Records
---
Amino acid sequence: MSTEASADKNISFYVNEPPINSDVETFFANYASIPSSALREHLINIRQRAWEKRNYPCLGRWAFLDFSIQQSPIYQEILDQCKNHGATLIDFGCCLGQDIRQLVYDGVHLDRLRGYDLESFFIELGYELFCDGEVMKENKIFTVGDIFDDDFLNGVEPADYVYVGAFIHLFDTPTQREVCRRLTRLAKRAITGRQVGASIPGEYSRTFDFPSSKSMRHSPETFTQMWNEVTECAWQVESAYLKTAYNMKSTNERLTFVVRSHEQK
Ligand SMILES: C[S@@+](CC[C@H](N)C(=O)[O-])C[C@H]1O[C@@H](n2cnc3c(N)ncnc32)[C@H](O)[C@@H]1O
């Protein structure tokens, strides 16, 4: 895999302008003390550098401004458990780390949270995006790690919840099964996330970010079947549904899911 992406902005899903709405403005004003007058330039600058690193659709479409963890069917449970009952959460494949910041914004204490990503570049860029590098580094919230590295995985203390936004779908069918197995080593209660799905499931070429790889897009049924087979029903899909997402240039189907452990850890 190459280390740098093309800076091509003609890709079908690439959207020039950041979708700044009142939620985004309020978040950045309150969390990062960035006034609305400076927000557009700040977002464009960070996204440009992220895009030059990797042509991930979530960067091209500005999906990182969705703070997608809020759409998890168990978001209120996660907030309640982390704020009031000592539960912990890992954001795996966190990239810029927007979902960790959403949890902090919603009142979760930093000692309940950890984010992991393959690329230190994205973690560092997240510090700039959210203007919180000092506190995040001091509390060691973000760490570089590869889901396929057993030495790394063995050193990670499992959390009650694992969030995986736009992560499992990065891989082909057999690799996704391995990723699911590995995620269950990191989670005690539930794994939840959102990713590209398809009502007609199948493997699609990852045309833009990693052209030589394939990405399996699941329907709720094939996603459930994968988890049942991989965990022999020790983990069960409690919720999985598709929703069509529109942006200015393209549409896709998104699969939102919760997988819950039926084992006591
Ligand atoms: C498409 S981005 C999604 C980012 C974020 N979770 C979101 O929802 O916007 C996928 C992230 O997974 C990370 N990643 C890819 N392969 C990985 C691996 N083997 N181990 C850990 N992280 C990985 C990438 O560096 C990237 O930041």
---
Amino acid sequence: CLQDPASAYRFTGAVCRLTYPAAVVLNEKTTKVIEAAFQHARYPSMKGEKSLLFIGKVMYGLDNLEIHNLSIGQSAFELHPGEGIAMEISNVSAVFKGTIQYGYGSWLVNFGHSVDFEIDSQIDLGINPKLYCGDGKVAADTTDCYLNFHKLRLHLQGDKEPNWLKKLFTDFITLTVKLVIKGQICKEINKAANILADFIQDTAEQFLTDGDISVDIGITAAPVITANYIESYHKGLTKYNNKIAVINESVFHPSQLTEDRMIYFWISDQFLNPMLKAAHQDGRFQLNVSGEELTVNNTGEHKMHFLHEGVYYLRGGGSQPTYMALCGKVISFISTLKDAFVVCVPVLGVELTRLLDKQGLYQFDLFNPEVLPRDGFVVIQMDFGFPHHLLVEFLKRTLQ
Ligand SMILES: CCCCC/C=C\C/C=C\CCCCCCCC(=O)O[C@H]1CC[C@@]2(C)C(=CC[C@H]3[C@@H]4CC[C@H]([C@H](C)CCCC(C)C)[C@@]4(C)CC[C@@H]32)C1
């Protein structure tokens, strides 16, 4: 994985750009993910001891700490260019319940006792995920994670303990609970963030697998974060019949994408052609287009090359390349290109949409997808809603 994205552009078959509006949609689901992290965290027992003058020493332990009545305020985030994502989850209120075992040990007396306790807490959570290339995939590093406890109030059941003991517990509990809760919660959040990143990349990989055809969308460079988008660079290597495509002259440049749609998929010819060719060889991609004048059955070897505005050429069997302007449903064969620069609704968009739907694209709430063929690449841009069932699916993975 190259550290400098620009040096990886030529090997990049596909780029995914997630703009700020898309991150806002994803962020609405963050509170659910954080809730799952709090609920799923397991708190280990903690032990402590304090030697007290005259009466020897007090040993104490905190057991089966559990969280109840968790509620989360709202989550805000910012994209920090070249840094990462800054997230603030505020007004997290929770009640922690558990049992304290304690006892005196001295030359005079030995005795143990246990008392149940409740802790009422108000917490602000801060997470600053950084994205990096981990094992060929986008991975998240959320070690920069902190909890600010606004309130931490200890209630001992029964309250018949002597005051000095209560004071001792309050100090012990406050310090220990803060450390343990922070440690466990931040660990769970790091797990959740990486499960989410994996889940999305696995979804995309499955999405691009059709029978014996699969695509390696491992990343070619570390993702880039600007103030307005997160961008990831993927290989896009088609694998079919033990043959893997090679990409080394891809023409990506960030200026080829805009920033007003939620999500962009930039797809190089060098990615799409091997995929279409494999799909054709596998009998999965028949371009039967009938228009008023004629019907074309796509036969023999062909190579889709995206020229301008929906004009493609298919290298026919013969020596002369045959050019077809796929205009809506009408195809006109053109022996020279000079009169081919017509603006057309690319038929391929229809085909691609059919393939996408077959692969389950309908599961995503996608709005107004556009397929824009350009010279040497295609841009697929759209808005989306994060469907609830996808979040449930993702959280099931987290809670495994
Ligand atoms: C997946 C939808 C498929 C629809 C496709 C439709 C048409 C496409 C046709 C061909 C596409 C070919 C190219 C596909 C390439 C896509 C590859 C891919 O997965 O990039 C993905 C690479 C990971 C990346 C960048 C992507 C989306 C969301 C990002 C996550 C959002 C939140 C999470 C953070 C860690 C925050 C966690 C919050 C915690 C703390 C609660 C992020 C940033 C981790 C990284 C994630 C795009």
